[in-house]
Write a structure and sequence with these properties.
By secondary structure, this protein is of the alpha/beta class. The protein folds into two domains: 270 residues, 3-Layer(aba) Sandwich (Rossmann fold), CATH 3.40.50.150; 68 residues. The chain is 40% helix and 15% strand. The protein is built from twelve helices and eleven strands. Strands 3-2-1-4-5-7-6-8 form an eight-stranded mixed beta sheet, with helices on both faces. A three-stranded antiparallel beta sheet has the order 9-11-10. Strand 6 and strand 7 form a beta hairpin. Helix 1 runs parallel beside helix 2, helix 4 packs parallel to helix 5 and helix 5 crosses helix 8. It is globular and about 65 Å long.
Length: 369
Amino acid sequence: MPRRGDSLETRWTRWPHTKAKHDLLVRYLGAWFPIMGRSVRKAIVLDAFAGPGRYDHGEEGSPILVLNALLEHKDFANWSNCEFVLLFNELDPERFESLEDVLGELRTANDPWPANVRLLDPQNQSFDELGRQMLDSLKGNNMAPTFAFIDPFGYKGLPLDLVAELVSFPMCELFIYFDFNSVNRFATANVVDKHFDRLFGTDEYRNAPPAGDPARQQFLHDLYERQLKQAANFAHVRSFAMVKDTGHIGNYMFFCTRNRRAFDLMKGAMWKIDPSGEYRFEDSLAGQDVLFEDENATGPLRDHLLENYAGKTVPIQQLVDHVIDETPFHSGQVRRQTLAPMQREGLISATGQQRKCTYPEGVSVVFPA
């Protein structure tokens, strides 16, 4: 009997927001793999809800996308000193069988298989079983640097305490699905509390404002974000909203890391998917020629810096770190796109520059009072 918690076929139609989510995944891994390949001896990618490997029209699922992001990277040949370990898990028996076939085809297509890529046998377990098995295998040791992609259907079987324990080790990162549509519907209905208690790791969701209150959505979003930070000690968390064609938010994808550079890279990937900087993707706009905001349009960042640093002289790295940590913008939007035009317009000045409107290490930016 199938164990799936949804009504979809073994392979189903790939929705526009699914492609957007996978685009984020691939863009980020395209930067993460080189960092790991050059700096560590071992790196792990976990896809805990891998699905069948392909969609009903043959589109590639996350397992193929992850493997291709690694194997087809232009610098892959330079990472022979790093062992990449990839683990794909799928609970549903029919989808698991499809996943095995897809991974087998990919391995055959890449014969001879690279010696430094260990593709583990796919697993057919619940997330509870898989997570506990992985933790038990450590025998008290730290986990190697890990990117965990946890993207289930719905809100069941995703206990926050297990997620937190699995990615509690240094250099572990998390890209996790949050079923906002269901949470918004049932948070105060007292019908699925046992599942929500595990999902949130607290019962505070019961204090959400009533349905229809504009504050309800933000309360639930912020509660889950706070729990991700506190439960697993993540310094940086950023969400990306997936908006259904009805105009309502269906889910959020939360990226969690302890590393500022990784956080900056993911924010950059999110800006590529939504150049408006609002961190959202709308199904209704998929495939349309829509005039988005230009990523170079950093007027709000300019205003923020002028207000936040009025009367201060700030080292450039401190300023860039602030932008990464405290604003929606990423580091690539600071120097050339924001500070240089501000200096040309006389809104700021700088000390330590050898050339005007350039901001290498050692330069400080002077903001008027």
